[in-house]
Design a protein that fits this description.
heterotrimer; A mainly alpha; B mainly alpha; C mainly alpha; A: Helix Hairpins; B: 2 domains; 11 helices
Chain lengths: 113, 310, 506
C-alpha cells in the first residue's frame, strides 16, 4: 500500500485520472474553447505519467531520470504552440461568422482554390 | 508528513481539474485552469523535476492561461459551439473515460520494477558536455535534434497564426493593448520589466548548471515584453518587420550553423568539438532564449490587426 | 546494451533530407516573401537530388543507411535510419512535392502577377516544413523524435487547409487540428509508457526487447488509435473531407497524397517492429476490419458527393483503407518474413500509386476550379472539350484508384487480391473487388461528364495555361508507369529489413 503513496506512483495515477478528465472534456464539451482547455488537461495528465516514470528512474545521484523530464519540457512547449494555433483559429472563425451575419466581411480574402 | 502533503496536493489537483471541466462560466473555468497550472508546478517539484516545474508554471499554466483568457474575452457571447452530447451520451463517454483512466492507472502500477532509467547514462556522458544540469544536457546535446525541430514547430505555429490575418493587413502588427489601459496594468508595466529581465537573464545563465534554461527564461522575457505592449508603453511590432524576423530566426539559425559545423570540426551533425561543448551550448541557448521570447510573445499576441507600415 | 546503430558512410544524406527544408524555412522567414518561391523551388530540387542519392546508396549497398545524431548512441541519443521502404517513401515524397511546387508556382503566377502575398508565402513555408516533417517521419528511429516529427507535420498541414481564409475552411482547419492534437497526445502517452517499461525509445532496440506485457499492449493501443485519428481511418475520418476539399488544390494534393501516409507508415512500423507477435496479429485483424469498412463506406460516400473535390477527398479515405487490409495479409510465417510477402509489396505500391494518382486528381480538379470557378460535378458537362489534358489526367489517375491495368493501382490491388485468396481471407478479397467497382462508379461519373455533349456552350472564366495541366498529367502518367512493375515481391522494399531482429516475429 505504501508503494502507491510514493510520489512517483501517486502522481502517475493522478496523471491517469487527468487523462480521463481531459478526454471527457474534449469529447463532450459543447464550447470549442473548453475543448482546447481539455486538450491541455489531457496533456498535463500525460506529462505527469512521464514525471512518474522519471521519478521512478532516480539513480546515479540524480533524484529523477533527466530524459523523460527533457521530453516533458519539449512537450509543454509544443502543447502551448498548439493551443495558440487553436485559439487563433477559433477567434478567426468567430470573427468570420459574425462577418457573415452582417453584409460582408471587410477585406475578405478572395478564394484561391 | 510529506505523504499527507502529496495526498492533499493530488486531491486538490483532481478537484480543480474536474471544476475546470464542469464549471459553466467560461471565465471562471479558465481562471481555475491557471490555478491548476500553479498546482502542477508544485507537483513537479515533488517529482524532483524543478526544470519541468518552472516550465509548467511559466508556459503550461501562465502562458496558456493568458492565451485562453484573451481568447475568452474576445469570444465572449459568441464562442463557437458544436452540438453537445446528450445526457446519455455524456454518461457513456464518462464511463469510457473512466475505463481509460483505470486502464492507464493499472499500466502505471504495472510498469517494470526496478524502473529502467537512463539517469546513469546521462550522468556518465555529461562530462563530455561540460554542463552541470543533466536536463539541459539531454535537451541540447543527447537529444538536440528534438529541440531543434521543436523550435521549428514553434516558428510554424507562428507562421500559421500570422496567415490567419486578412490579405490586406498580413505582415502588420497585432493588437494587444486594450482601448483603455487599466491603471494597475500601466503601473506594473513600468515596475516589473527591469526585475523580469534580470530574472530572465539569470534563469538562462544558471540553466547550464542548475534548474532553468532557455524556455523558462524566454517565457519570463516574453511576459515582460507582452506586459509593456499591453500597457501601451511600446507598440507591438509588425510581423513583417526585419528586426522581429531576425530575432525569431536567429536562435534556430545559430543552432543549425553550429550543428553543421559539427560535420567539419567534430563527429558529425549536432556533435560538439571536444572541449568547446559548453561555450557553444551556452551561445545556442542565449540566441534561443531571445528567439523563444519573441516567438512566445507573438503567439499570444495573435495575427495582425493593422496593415503593416510600409 | 550493445550498440545497435552505426553511422554508415552516406548516412549524412538522411540528415540533409530532414534539415535542408528547415534551413529553407528559416531563410524565407528571414528574407521575407519576395524570394519565397525561388528558395522553395531550389530546395525542392535539392531535396529530390538527396532522395535519389539515398535510393541509389540503398541499391548500391543493399543495406539500410543509418546516422547516429551527434554521435550520441541510443538509447541516450537519437538515430536516423532508412531502409528500402523509407527510401521509397522519401523518393515518392520528393517527386510529389516537386510536381506540386511546379504547379503552385504557375498557379500563383496567374493571380495578381505572382505578387508575394499572404497565401503564397505561407504556402511555400508550409510546403517546405512538410518536406522536413515527412522525411523525419520516414527516417526516424526514436519514438519521441517521431512525435516531434508528427507535430511538425500537423503544424505544417493545418494552416494549409485554411489558406483561402473562408469561414468554412477555418472551421475545417480547427477540426483537423483538434483531431490531430488528440492523436498526437495519445501517441505521446504510449511513448511514455514504453519508456517506463523498457527505458528506451529506439525502435531497433525495442524490436529486440519487446515482449507480451500489458503495459506494452496498452501503449501500442493508445499509439495506434492516435495515429488512426491522424490517418483518418473510419470512423475517425470525419475531419478529412472538409479539410482536404477546402484547401487550395496544391495543398489538397500534398495533404491527400503525402500527409496522411506518415501516420500509416508509423502504424506499420509499430505493428511490424515493436508489437509482439500475438498483439500484432490481433491489431492486424482489427485494422483490416476498419480498413474494409473504410473502403466500402467512403467509396459509397464518394459516389454521393455533388462537388468534385469532396468526391476526391472521400476517395482518399477509401483508398487509405486498402493500406490497412495489408496487415493480416502480410503477417508472413516462419520461413517467409512479412517483407517478402506479396502483400507487403502490394501495400507499398498501393501507398505510392495512390500518392501519385491522388495528387494528379486534386491538381486536375484545381485546374477545373480555376477554369470554371466551381467544381459542381453536375455543371461540368463537356469540360473534357475545354480541358482535354486535365480530363485525361483525371482518367489515368482513376485507373489506379479502380485497379484497372495498366496502372500502379492495378498491380497493388492484384497483389493484395492474390494474397487475400492465398491467405484465406475471402471477405477481404470481396472488399477489394467491391472497392474497385465503387471506385469505377465515382471515376466514370466524372469522365462521363467530361465527354458529354454540353447542353449549352461551356463558359470558361479564366484561361488556364497548359503547364498546370501537364503537371497533373505527368503525375497521373507516373502512377500508370508503376503498372509495368512485375507482379512479384520487389527487392528494393526488402533492403535493410532483414537487419531488424527476428526476435519479435513468429
Amino acid at each position: 500500500m505504501t508503494a502507491v503513496l510514493q510520489p512517483g506512483v501517486l502522481f502517475g495515477l493522478c496523471g491517469a485520472v487527468l487523462v480521463g478528465i481531459g478526454l471527457f472534456a474534449i469529447v463532450t464539451h459543447p464550447a470549442l474553447l473548453r475543448r482546447i482547455v481539455g486538450c491541455n488537461i489531457l496533456g498535463a495528465g500525460i506529462f505527469l505519467v512521464f514525471g512518474a516514470v522519471a521519478r521512478r528512474g532516480a539513480g546515479a545521484g540524480l533524484d529523477a531520470d533527466p530524459v523523460p523530464q527533457a521530453l516533458v519540457i519539449t512537450g509543454i512547449v509544443v502543447a502551448f504552440s498548439a493551443s495558440a494555433l487553436a485559439v487563433a483559429l477559433l477567434k478567426r472563425l468567430s470573427e468570420l461568422s459574425v462577418g457573415e451575419g452582417r453584409a460582408a466581411e471587410p477585406a475578405a480574402p478572395r478564394s484561391e482554390t | 508528513m510529506m505523504v499527507l502533503l502529496d495526498l492533499a496536493l493530488a486531491a486538490w489537483l483532481l478537484a480543480l481539474a474536474l471544476h475546470v471541466v464542469m464549471e459553466r462560466n467560461e471565465r471562471s473555468a479558465i481562471i481555475a485552469f491557471l490555478a491548476l497550472g500553479l498546482l502542477l508546478g508544485l507537483v513537479w517539484v515533488r517529482l524532483a523535476a524543478p526544470d519541468v516545474a518552472l516550465t509548467e508554471i511559466a508556459i503550461g499554466g501562465g502562458g496558456t492561461g493568458i492565451l485562453l483568457l484573451r481568447a475568452e474575452a474576445a469570444l465572449r457571447g459568441r464562442g463557437k459551439h458544436e452540438e453537445g452530447a446528450t445526457r446519455g451520451g455524456k454518461l457513456a463517454v464518462a464511463a469510457g473515460c473512466a475505463v481509460i483512466s483505470a486502464g492507464l492507472g493499472f499500466a502505471v502500477l504495472a510498469l517494470a520494477s526496478p524502473a529502467p532509467t537512463l539517469a546513469p547514462a546521462a550522468s556518465d556522458a555529461i562530462a563530455a558536455t561540460g554542463l552541470g544540469n543533466p536536463v539541459t544536457a539531454v535537451l541540447l546535446a543527447y537529444r538536440a535534434l528534438d529541440t531543434l525541430l521543436e523550435k521549428v514547430v514553434v516558428l510554424l505555429a507562428l507562421v500559421g497564426i500570422w496567415s490567419l490575418a486578412p490579405d490586406g493587413i498580413w505582415g502588420g502588427a497585432p493588437e494587444v493593448a486594450p482601448a483603455a489601459v487599466p491603471g494597475p496594468l500601466a503601473w506594473l508595466a513600468r515596475i516589473l520589466p527591469p526585475f523580469g529581465v534580470v530574472i530572465g537573464v539569470y534563469m538562462f545563465w544558471v540553466g547550464a548548471d542548475a534548474p532553468g534554461g532557455t524556455f523558462q527564461a524566454g517565457t519570463v522575457l516574453a511576459a515582460m515584453w507582452l506586459l509593456v505592449i499591453m500597457a501601451g508603453l511600446l507598440p507591438p511590432p509588425d510581423a513583417a518587420s526585419p528586426a522581429l524576423r531576425l530575432v525569431l530566426v536567429g536562435g534556430p539559425a545559430l543552432f543549425l550553423a553550429i550543428a553543421f559545423l559539427g560535420f567539419i570540426v567534430a563527429d558529425g551533425f549536432l556533435a560538439y568539438p571536444e572541449g568547446f561543448a559548453k561555450p557553444l551550448i551556452v551561445a545556442i541557448e542565449a540566441a534561443l532564449t531571445l528567439s523563444v521570447a519573441a516567438a512566445l510573445a507573438m503567439l499570444v499576441a495573435g495575427p495582425a490587426r493593422k496593415a503593416p507600415a510600409r | 546494451m550493445t550498440s545497435v546503430h552505426a553511422t554508415t558512410p552516406s548516412g549524412f544524406l538522411l540528415v540533409l533530407a530532414v534539415i535542408l527544408p528547415v534551413c529553407a524555412v528559416l531563410a524565407i522567414v528571414a528574407c521575407g516573401p519576395r524570394s519565397a518561391a525561388r528558395i522553395a523551388m531550389t530546395t525542392l530540387a535539392a531535396g529530390l537530388a538527396v532522395a535519389i542519392a539515398i535510393a541509389m546508396e540503398l541499391v548500391a549497398g543493399g543495406t539500410a543507411l543509418s546516422y547516429v545524431v551527434g554521435g550520441w548512441q541510443p538509447p541516450l541519443g537519437i538515430a536516423l535510419r532508412a531502409d528500402g521502404l523509407s527510401g521509397a517513401m522519401i523518393v515518392m515524397t520528393a517527386l510529389v512535392l516537386g510536381a506540386v511546387g511546379l504547379f503552385a508556382r504557375s498557379q500563383y503566377a496567374l493571380h495578381d502577377g505572382g505578387g508575394a502575398g499572404r497565401a503564397q508565402t505561407t504556402f511555400w513555408i508550409l510546403l517546405l516544413a512538410l518536406a522536413s516533417a515527412l522525411n523525419a517521419t520516414f527516417v526516424g528511429e526514436d519514438l519521441f523524435n517521431l512525435y516531434v516529427a508528427l507535430e511538425l507535420l500537423t503544424f505544417a498541414a493545418v494552416p494549409l487547409v485554411c489558406l483561402d481564409g473562408r469561414a468554412e475552411t477555418v472551421k475545417a482547419a480547427l477540426r483537423y487540428l483538434l483531431f490531430a492534437l488528440l492523436g498526437s497526445l495519445l501517441y505521446l502517452l504510449g511513448t511514455g509508457l514504453i519508456y517506463g517499461q523498457y527505458g528506451t525509445l529506439d525502435l531497433l532496440a525495442l524490436s529486440q526487447l519487446s515482449r507480451e506485457d500489458p503495459a506494452l499492449s496498452a501503449a501500442l493501443a493508445l499509439m495506434i488509435v492516435g495515429l488512426l485519428a491522424k490517418a483518418a481511418l473510419f470512423p475517425l475520418h470525419l475531419w478529412l473531407p472538409p479539410a482536404h476539399a477546402g484547401a487550395p488544390a496544391p495543398a489538397s494534393a500534398v495533404l491527400s497524397a503525402l500527409v496522411i501516409k506518415a501516420p500509416v507508415f508509423l502504424i506499420l512500423r509499430l505493428v511490424l517492429d515493436v508489437a509482439p507477435p500475438q498483439a500484432a496479429a490481433v491489431a492486424g485483424q482489427m485494422l483490416a476490419v476498419l480498413g474494409a469498412v473504410s473502403i466500402l463506406f467512403c467509396s459509397v460516400m464518394a459516389l454521393r458527393q455533388a462537388r468534385l473535390k469532396l468526391m476526391i477527398a472521400y476517395s482518399t479515405v477509401a483508398q487509405i483503407g486498402y493500406l490497412f487490409i495489408v496487415f493480416p495479409l502480410a503477417a508472413g510465417s516462419a520461413d517467409l518474413p512479412p517483407w517478402s510477402t506479396i502483400a507487403w509489396t502490394g501495400g507499398a505500391l498501393q501507398l505510392i500509386s495512390h500518392a501519385l494518382a491522388k495528387s494528379a486528381m486534386f491538381l486536375a480538379a484545381g485546374v477545373v476550379y480555376e477554369a470554371f470557378g466551381h467544381d459542381r460535378i453536375a455543371d461540368l458537362r463537356g469540360f473534357g472539350r475545354v480541358l482535354p489534358i486535365s480530363a485525361a489526367a483525371f482518367g489515368l489517375a482513376g485507373l489506379s484508384l479502380m485497379g484497372i491495368p495498366p496502372s500502379g493501382g492495378f498491380v497493388a490491388k492484384c497483389l493484395l487480391l492474390t494474397a487475400a485468396v492465398a491467405e484465406g481471407y475471402p471477405w477481404l478479397a470481396a472488399t477489394i473487388l467491391a472497392g474497385g467497382l465503387l471506385a469505377g462508379g465515382y471515376v466514370f461519373r466524372v469522365i462521363d461528364k467530361a465527354l458529354a455533349n454540353p447542353a449549352a456552350p461551356i463558359v470558361v472564366q479564366r484561361a488556364v495555361p497548359r503547364r498546370l495541366e501537364i503537371v497533373a498529367l505527368a503525375l497521373a502518367a507516373a502512377a500508370v508507369m508503376l503498372g509495368f512493375l512485375p507482379l512479384r515481391p520487389f527487392e528494393f522494399l526488402q533492403i535493410g529489413r532483414s537487419g531488424v531482429s527476428m526476435a519479435g516475429l513468429p
